[in-house]
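FYI - complex with EPU, inputs then prediction.
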Amino acid sequence: MDKLHIEGGVALEGEITISGAKNAALPILCAGLLTADTLALDNVPDLRDIGTTLALLQRMGMHAERETGGRVRLRADRIHSQEAPYELVKTMRASILVLGPLLARFGQARVSLPGGCAIGQRPVDQHIKGLAAMGARIRIEHGFVVAQAERLRGASILTDMVTVTGTENLMMAAALAEGRTVLENAACEPEVVDLAEVLIAMGARIEGHGTDRIVIEGVDSLHGATHRIVPDRIEAGTFLCAVAAAGGRVTLRDVAPRTMGAILDKLADAGLAIECGEDWIRASMDGRPRATSFRTSEYPGFPTDMQAQVMALNTLAEGTAVITENIFENRYMHVQELCRMGADIDIDGHTAVVTGVPELSGATVMATDLRASASLVIAGLAARGQTTVERIYHLDRGYERMEAKLQALGARIQRIR
Ligand code: EPU
């Protein structure tokens, strides 16, 4: 299994390009199931989760071609299977995003239920509740969600909590349902907005995306479209944390600062000097970061997907930070590993108290999820001595060529195969 070797203590200098957002690309690839025409996508990141999704779609009969420069062309004119098997779903929970599109276009779907995962239980009851409200007959059988409907009907759906992929699944299903669907307590994340924009380009009638009330007037069919995936705000935030922790001066290109309000706000609070244009960010850091407390919440609040990285930054800060994780019940797996590098962190339930130390020392560390692994890379870049991050297949799920981008900024980082 691949590892990363990092020689810490080198300030980061230079310019990199941010990739398209994983969490926008995943639902948008699944939206390709909603039409028999071609969906052409640009800025699709080259990630393991994208490969898994394409493999899943191809197994159903989707014609999927990856071209150079992040373009993917999809054509779902010969779908012969409406099933998502356990082997694929267990490696990537986002596979549940085929449920809404399959049911809406083909009237049936059989999707393996994802199990619990490293960061929490993550049930999909709200996806099921919403589709049932739209008239689907759903049963759980042999570990699969088995759903059928002649044609979905529009419905008023209030989800018990804000769910990102739940909102996306229901929005895709409602696009082809008969009549009007109103999603209340909908997720406002930029990735949900990006999906809504693709669906609109495909002929869907959607209003209110980006707010907590999305109204969808179902149409009989959707057509092909071309779309560029929104930049990855979490990848961009991760690189900014790396500069804030290791010091230096970097420019990020092809980024969307308008989607990064809470992240930029916290990093500025930590002492990172930030300048932004429409699609670029320049950031520099001198000296030690300041402690910055935060609570994770739904967009536009501070994202849970940045919690581990900003915690890594706080381990080196002047002062004490209080961090509360409100979205997932078990998203502190990086804490023990950061402590092995010399961090001072106390956990009490959902709250972590991080007392900054002047220096971390390199160690061999390992994490069991994507963002936790990113936090260990950040700690390694700032630490004294050598850090080895093991099991980096987690990183490869969500960061495109992370080590190459860090090398371009002068970091001493190597992938060991
Ligand atoms: N929840 C339920 N029932 C449901 C759906 C959600 O109880 O039917 C709970 C979850 O267990 C969680 C909360 O609601 O406690 C919010 O979960 P949500 O459904 O919003 O998460 P998700 O859609 O499964 C997406 C991202 C995650 C990101 C979360 C929160 C994708 C593919 N994944 O997951 O991304 O952390 O939203 O913003 O969009 C990552 O990229 O590292 C990642 C984990």
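The first strand starts at residue 3 and ends at 7. Residues 143 and 215 are 32 Å apart (CA to CA).
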